[in-house]
Amino acid sequence: MTQEADQIFVLAKHWLMGYVPAVAQPIASAVLSIVPVLIAFPLLFAITTVLERKGLGRIQNRYGPNRTGPAGFFQPIADGIKSLTKEDIVPLTADQAVHFLAPVLLVVAAFLAYAVLPIGRNMVIVNLNAGVLFFFAVGSVVELSVFMAGWSSRSKYSLLGAMRAIAQMISYEVPLVLASVVVIMEAGSLSTVSIVERQAGYTGIWPHWYLFTPWGLVGFFLFMVAATAESNRSPFDLPEGESEIIAGYYIEYSGFKFALFFLGEYLGMFATSGMAITLFLGGWAAPFSFLTWIPSYIWFFVKLLTLIGFFIWIRGTLPRLRMDQLMNLAWEFILPMALLNMLIAGIWHFMQPGVVRWLVCLAIVAVPCILLRQGLKRRKKFQVRTYRYAD
Amino acid sequence: MTLTFLILAAITVAGTAAAMGMRNAVHCVLALTVGFAGVAALYLQLDAQFVGLTQIMVYVGAVAILAVFAIMMTHTPAPEQPPAFSSHWILGGLVAAAVFAVLAWAIGSSAVSMQPLPAEPAVGVQQIGAALMDRYVLPLEIMGLLLTAALIGAVVIAMDRKEDRQ
């Protein structure tokens, strides 16, 4: 019974495939795999917008949306109708074609990333040999669409936002990839499915997730910081900082194109969170051995919603970073720590299992981390800032 | 020659041709990116996943962004620019066609093309990694050293000197 519940979507697909003639089978199989993802994640986006607004409201000591439907949960429908019926304004000086293509490219790239995410047992669209590489390759296309949006609008604020966004995304892509390299080293594979399989099994009731190793713990934190920056979320939301450059690269978009940018950004956040789950949190596996009867896809979405909750919490709590702080954090702290983490993963691999391995690896992590922090702190001289170009 | 190959080849050729012919520098870069993506798709179609995805990551994610960033930093948008085609384009096209014909003839009549095609080797990411760490470790290290030197050079050039600021 539990197995049927776990495999219900896979069985449903096989059942539907029985009615398809053999000629159309490859296409029908692809469509049947893709359509649920195209439905599930935009739906999650709709739910997340309500949860985020309500959560932020609670943090800021006010009610969130509470008028539309039960407890305000029909708000995304109202938002959707509003953005569909709004006038689609394109600036007169804008580059029409590029201006139109930018949001399309963003959403396409964001959806492509889901092709390699294992959402449940046997539930992945394609099991690519180089799945993790595919994920990062698709992620790099997002930068291009951000540039297209910022440049084609022919607006000062758009261009500033695009430049900020690209500088930030390039800087944080390096630690994002380096933080996930440790998992690839240990799993010995770039395929997301086999990375999840390598984390299967339990000792007592505890799972074998990569999070529960020194390098996995460090890698997970570095990955999440870099992922927050990659998805332009607070405290790294300089590219769209409302109080500085209004909305950054998509200031000249209105109506449904604006909604597409919103959708693309959230889809990107879900995808990177899904990758963090795959790499460090055991994918769709249950967190305790006695909970394995709950279907695998439910565990994936529980983990995803937990990470989304953390994102909302951080957004409500932390102030925005300044540009130089952002760059210093990436290049002076996260990058050295990610490189050091790779060394630890190697040492961990070749040492005998036991307490000594834990202590050695933790010491190698903790000592440089503290020293680096002290060194960076001492170098900061608090004085009146001089601006090179803005005097 | 399958239909997919023809479509991808058409996209690649159209993208790169547009990159040469367009007047706006940013449009050129975007068209070139289409060409890069087409080449990557051709690699993927040949089942070379690693090369194809690296092509996207390096060329679309880094080279195109670098070009675009350089344009954004230096270029002031000037809508009126001289046409990209020079007046000698017929002559140029003739020379290009001649060079292509000679190359195609040389390749077609060489001994290499006469040999029967060897069996397709199954090269996965794992084999590429093993080869890089085993047989080709010295070239890899030399490449790394070269790139590090280039990186340090770039930082030295970009560093703002004390005397400049005063």
Describe this structure in words.
Chain A has one domain. Chain A contains 14 helices and two strands. Chain A has helices at residues 2-6, 8-17, 25-59, 75-85, 96-112, 131-152, 156-187, 192-198, 214-230, 242-245, 255-280, 296-317, 323-350, 355-379, and strands at 202-203, 206-207. Chain A has a two-stranded antiparallel ribbon with strand order 1-2. In chain A, a hairpin with a 2-residue loop joins strand 1 (202-203) and strand 2. The radius of gyration of chain A is 22 Å and the shape is globular. With 166 residues, chain B is an all-alpha fold. Among the domains of chain B are: 1-78, Four Helix Bundle (Hemerythrin (Met), subunit A) (Up-down Bundle); 124-159. Chain B has eight helices and no strands. Chain B starts with a helix and ends with a helix. In chain B, 14% of the residues are buried. The A-B interface holds A 95, 98, 128-130, 133-134, 136-141, 143-144, 147-148, 151, 154, 159, 162-163, 166, 170, 173, 188-190, 388 and B 24, 26-27, 30, 33, 49-50, 53-54, 56-57, 60-62, 64-65, 68-69, 72, 77, 124-126, 165.
